[in-house]
Each structure stands twice: as C-alpha cells, then as structure tokens.
Amino acid sequence: MKDEKKRGRPRAFDAKATLAKARDVFWDRGFAAASLDNLSAATNLNRPSLYGAFGDKEDLYLDTLEGYRQDGMYALAQALDPSLPLRDNLARVYEGALAVYLHGETAARGCLLIGTATVEAVERERVREVLGRSLSDFDGEIEKRMRLAVERGELPESADPQMLARLASAVMHSLAVRARAGDSRETLEAIARSGVELICGSARS
Amino acid sequence: MKDEKKRGRPRAFDAKATLAKARDVFWDRGFAAASLDNLSAATNLNRPSLYGAFGDKEDLYLDTLEGYRQDGMYALAQALDPSLPLRDNLARVYEGALAVYLHGETAARGCLLIGTATVEAVERERVREVLGRSLSDFDGEIEKRMRLAVERGELPESADPQMLARLASAVMHSLAVRARAGDSRETLEAIARSGVELICGSARS
DNA sequence: CATATTTTGTACCGTTTCGCATTAAATTCT
DNA sequence: AGAATTTAATGCGAAACGGTACAAAATATG
Question: HTH tetR-type domain spans which residues (chains A, B) (predicted)?
Fold first, then answer.
C-alpha cells in the first residue's frame, strides 16, 4: 500500500515533512497571518504545488491541525501508561506538553490548537469542529484513565472521572495559554505540579 | 477635566462607544483577520478618522484589549466580594465569565484576550505584554481572596493561596477556550461547578 | 470677520493577498 | 519511441490590504 507507482511525474517532496514545516508557520503566525508566500517559502514548494497537493489555505491548515491532534493523542496515550500511578501519569502528560509548548524561537509557541485554532473557531466551522473534537477526545482519553483509577482505588469511589478529566485538561489549557503569554518554565512547572496535587489529592495513596 | 473646549472641529463620535464596536469586530474575527474596512464599517468611522483617533490597527487593538482587561478586573473584584463565602465568590466569577463568553451570534466568542490575543502574542511583543499582565493581574486578585480565606479558616493553613489562585484561573482559561470551541452552556457550567468544588474542597466548611 | 486648528470625507498609492492559467519537465503505459 | 498523465515552475490578475495626501467642513481664538 506504499509504493504504488503512479502514472505521471513523481512528487519531489515528502508530504509529511511538508506538513510539518507548514505547521510551524501556522504555529508562530496563526492561520490568518500566515500567507501562502510564507508557507511556500518554508516548505520550498511553489504555491501551485501547495495548492495541488493540499488544497487551499484552510485545507492545508486543517491538515496540520489533524496531524497535530493525532500526534497529541498518541503522546497522551503513552503518558497515561496504566502501569504507572495516576500521579505519575498526569505529571508525564504535563511534562510532555511543556516540552512542546516551550519550544519557540522568540517566544514560546504554546499549543497549536489552543494557540491558533481558537481564534478561527468562531467564523470557520471546520476549524471549530476539529478544535472541539480535539479537546473532547483529549478529555475522553484522560477520563478512561480516571475511571481505571477509581476501579483500582487510586481515587475514591466518590470521585467523578469525567469531571476530574476535564479539570486535568483545564490545567493543560491554561499551560498552553500561559506559555504563549510568556510565562517562565518554572511558573508553568509549578502550576503543573499543583494541578497534579489538587486532582490526585483526594487519593489517599 | 472633561469638557475642555478644544480648538478645531469637534469629534462626531464617542471614543468609548467606538472602541466597544471595534472590540466586537476583533472578538469575532481576531486581530489579523479584522480589516480596517471591517472596523471602519462597524464603527461608522472613516479609516483616516480611525487612524487619527487611535493610531494604526495594532494600537486600536491594544486599546480594546486594555479596556477589556480593565472591565474584567472590575467585574472580578465585584464577584470576589469578601463578605460572601469563597465558594460563592468563585461560582460568581465563573458565572460572570460564562455570561460574557457565551454571548455570540453564530458561535460563542469566549474571552477576547484568550481567544484573540493568544495567537498574536508570539510575534507581537506588545500584545504578549498585555496578555501576560492581564493573566497575572487576574491571578493576583484571586490570590488576595485566597489569602484572606486562609486567614479566616475558609481554607486550611496548609493551602497555597498563589497556587490555588492560579488553578482557579486555569479553570477560567479552559472555559474561555471551550466556549469558543463550541461546548454547550451545560458542559461549561458543570466544569465550573466541579472546579469550585475541587478548589474549595479542602475547605471543610 | 479673519485666522488657526482639528476633524471629516474622498480618493489614491504601493504592496500584498489568494488563486489560477499556462507552459515545461518527468515519469508510466502502450 | 510516442502518447498519456501527473507534477513543477513562471507569471499573471483581480481584489483586498494598511496607510496617507488632500481638500472641505466645523469649531475656537484674536
């Protein structure tokens, strides 16, 4: 399913690598301020090639968002390894997020979705749909782990897995915004630690 | 200090009302996607008048952000009325926020700062500065109330007012993002309730 | 009333924007 | 080898962009 020789002239670029470069442009500038010329320069692709391969600017943007979402979900599942205590799971989630969020040149980039899709969500339905789905998928994955924690006794029976998951996500949303607002790594790590403590606090383990 | 008769032709518009209309445009479209024509149409002001009164687009945007920040700080101080229990204070903060965030035509607008300034913060230092200051001022105001709560015994001595305040803000940040992502009022209210419960949970009152 | 000063409205400028039309190049199929 | 097909590259073009020059209008001052 990989190397089906297609008929015409072969592509001189790797679609995945191109998407990654386009993603970085959107990440820094946002969707609206990223011009096709910016994207063309960053990907070393002419505008017509970009257009032919990915569609218009919004299509390309949605592609990068979808890839980012999938990468995030994979990293989340890794961090939530159920053989580790819930506390460690959450700490790993935040640690991994901060590693991504703080990687910026002039200023930290935060989260691609929260940092750049949120602003477009009001007027672009497709963006709003991806953003909404990304957030709720994220919640859902954490919720699964929370439910397991209740079953195992890591959390008391009275704990509400769905709500705890949403609050765990809330801390991440805040880290994403604050990173982009210029908060220091130390501050963000302190918030992450306190978040873990508060959410796992009811666990007497 | 109000009605100093200035020399030339008087202004035919109210600066504050104009800023409010411009703010609405930025709120829906974001800074980058809001054109001077959009702003001119919404404010019923010609572009040169806009420019003369508020400077360039970024200046105008920063003005609206600053006004929004001040309004928010005032509303926050009101909600944190120290004659009420901490629980009620937090609930009022979130209730007031949701009333603002859910007011949208097609989709909910969320928070002007988190929804539209975050994306510009990376490349526009002045926006990043206002956003950072807004977030930390907000944290600080809640922190004051948290410290009072510890003094009064609403929270245990072991509670960390600064961190609890930052986590209380985190819930707000999440509400802001989720509103714009299309979450329902019911969902957001449930998150707010759970947030209050979790943060005030250590209070045995 | 004349002058100075500020705001308003029209029109315009150079640039950038997105998207596409067209042609050249590279590969497979016959 | 030649036809068919897909991609690459150049360049165009109409529209939108932010910003400003300039003249007309409206007020205060002398």
Answer: 12-72
CA distance A147 to chain B (A): 17
Q: According to CATH, what is the number of the domain B63-200?
A: 1.10.357.10
What is the maximal distance between C-alpha atoms in chain A? 65
pLDDT at A106 (0 to 100): 72
What ipTM describes this predicted complex? 0.93
pLDDT digits (tens, 9 = 90+) for A48-77: 999 999 999 999 999 999 999 999 999 999
Chain B, nearest residue to A161 by Cα: B194
- Compute CA distances A168 → A34, A81, A143, A191, B148, whole Å: 32, 16, 9, 12, 26
Work out if B5's Cβ lies within 7 angstroms of strand C: no
- Per-residue confidence (pLDDT) for residue B25, from 0 to 100: 97
Q: How many separate helices (H) and strands (E) can be counted in chain A?
A: 10, 0
Extents of the domains making up chain B: 63-200
Spatial separation of the C-alpha atoms in residues A66 and A69, rounded to whole Å: 5
Out of A28, A166, A177, closest to residue B173 by CB: A177
Amino acid at A125: E
**Looking at beta carbons, which residues of chain A come within 8 Å of B104?**
122
